Structures are given as structure tokens and as C-alpha cells.
Amino acid sequence: MAKTLRTSGDYTIKTGTGASGSNSVIFDSKTTRVSGDLIVDGTSTTLNTATLTIEDPIIRLAKNNTNTVDTDSGILVERGVDNNAAFYWNEGDTVFKAVTTTSDGTGTSITDTALANIRVAEPSDNTDAATKNYVDTQVGGGFSLKVAGDDSTQIAVESGNTLQFSGGANIHTDATEPDTITVNLNERLTGIDSITGSTSNADITISANSTGSVVIDDVLTFPANRSGDPTATAVTKVFAQTPSGGGTGLFFNNTSVSSGQAGELISKKKATALAIALG
Q1: CA distance 120 to 130
Q2: What would the pLDDT profile of 216-259 be if each residue is shown by its tens digit?
Q3: Which of 64, 88, 143, 163 has the greatest number of beta carbons closer than 10 A?
Q4: d(Cα 244, Cα 261) in Å, to the nearest integer?
Q5: Do 277 and 258 touch, CB atoms closer than 8 A?
Q6: Cβ distance 84 to 78 under 8 Å?
Q7: Number of alpha carbons in the 13 Å side-chain half-sphere of residue 178
Q8: DSSP class of residue 102?
Q9: Residue 153 contacts residue 137 (beta carbons within 8 Å)
Q10: Which of helix, strand or coil describes residue 228?
Q11: Which residues are paired to 43 by β-bridges?
Q12: Model confidence at 73, in pLDDT bands (50, 70, 90)?
């Protein structure tokens, strides 16, 4: 028959010396129900049940972790003669890991023996884990890259092929890890028809190294189509305009010469004629 034991205060069942002893309290019944909170104070809780059902939607692990000790935390699966499996938070690496392990769940760390595969569905969001099939499709079979040169001809770079940057007659290229292509103009420039500055009113400077000189090994042409004289500075500027009294059409100016006013270089013929005229 049913029986109820009621007390007006706390009720203690103690065997031997209690928690410090070796005696046990055994409940031998089909069902043991605790109506109220159940607090177990001890070092180990073992459930020898075939099925475990938990109503709590969030399971809290490592409750008293103060982060003063590098504590791994997660779920460990016993696998008999094979290494155990674990899915856990690795505190040292600050990542979740799926591994096989020789650890038995005691202590505060899990020793990895190998990484384990995680099987997931095809991703549908940018933050989903990618499957191998998705990566193969997007990067492998779906990979498409085309490059074009100055002639606009497009060349497809297929998966597994190498995109090579080849230097021309005056250009040298170097490839270095991890992802750098260096283009050097280390040789003499030939076949150049025009050099044009990209910035309005900016100078183009050609400088020789150390005591070297800038050598023009051919005809130097000054088009006589500029309008007006350039602004005189502390350097000498040479330019061309319609020939005047000097008979050359080649002019220069410098702030230190005639207050910066332009002067025409005189030709040999004009100089001879002036010499004769002046006697």
C-alpha cells in the first residue's frame, strides 16, 4: 500500500559516516521521481540507462570554469577498442573541433589523434559551412577565368592550369610566394614611340645615375607649335617657335638671363651676316 513520510523540517538519510564513508543508499523501484530540484554534490555522476531524455533545451558545460585554466569542453563518445570521438571547444585554439582522441573524458583537456569529418547539408546561406560538393562545383567545375592582352583576345584559364605573366623585350617578371607578381623594367627600352604624362601640367623627368649623362643619340626635334613663352625659372628652358631675328626658331629663357625674357639662338649664317654688317 502507498505510504507517505512527512516531516516539518529537513529529512536526512545517512549511512555509515555519510559522504565520506563507503556505504550506499539504494532505491530499488521501477520509477524514482523527485518532485522538486535535484542537487548532487560529489565528484562523479554516472547514469547506467539505455535512454536519456532531457527537457532542458540548453545544456551548460564547464559551469565553474573561471578561465584561469585552459579548459576544453564538449561531448565525448566511447568507441570501444577504437579511439574515442569528440566534438568539443578547444580553449587553446579557440575553435570547435571534431576529432578522434585517446582521452577518456576525465581532466580538463582533450588530446587529438586525428580530425574527424563533419557531414553537413548543402549551404543555403553565406554563413553556412560549405560541403565538398559545393566547393568542387563553385571553384572546380564552375570556375571560369578569362584574361585578355592589348589585342583584346580572351584566353580561358581552366581549372588546374597556370596563369603565367611573361615579360616582353624590356620587361622582366618575378613570382614570389604567397601571391606576388613583380614587374621590373631592368633592361634597355626599345621600340617606344611615345611617352606621355598622365597628370595635367606635370613634368616628365629623365635622370642619369650618379655622374652619368642623358645622351640623345639622334635628332632632337622641338615642334614649333607652342603658344607663348614658358614661364622662366632658375633653370634654362629650350623651346621652339616661329623663327625670328636669330634665324633658328630655337629659343631659351632663364630668370638669370635678361630677367627671364626669351631669347633666340642665332644661326651661323645670321652671325656671319651680322659680323660683316658691323664690320
Answers
A1: 8
A2: 888 888 877 777 888 888 889 898 888 888 989 999 999 888 88
A3: 88
A4: 15
A5: no
A6: yes
A7: 0
A8: S
A9: no
A10: coil
A11: none
A12: very high
Q: Which residue in this structure is represented by grid cell 532531457?
A: 54
DSSP of 3-37, one letter per residue? Answer: -----SS------TTGGGSS------SS----SS-
Q: The C-alpha cell of 67 is what? A: 578561465
| List of residues 6+ apart from 143 with CB closer than 8 A | 159
| Nine cell digits for residue 127 | 554563413
Q: Extract the C-alpha cell encoding 36.
A: 522538486
* Residue 135 grid coordinates: 566547393
Question: Please, what's the b/e burial string for 97-128 (b: 16 or more CB within 10 A of its CB; e: otherwise)?
Answer: bebbbebeeeeebbebeeeeeeeeeeeeeeee
Quick one: pLDDT band at residue 140, thresholds 50, 70, 90? Answer: low
**3 state SS of 138:** helix
Residue 270: Cβ-neighbour burial (10 angstroms; 0-12, 13-18, 19+): middle
What is the rounded average pLDDT of the residues 267-271? 90
C-alpha cell read off for 50: 539505455
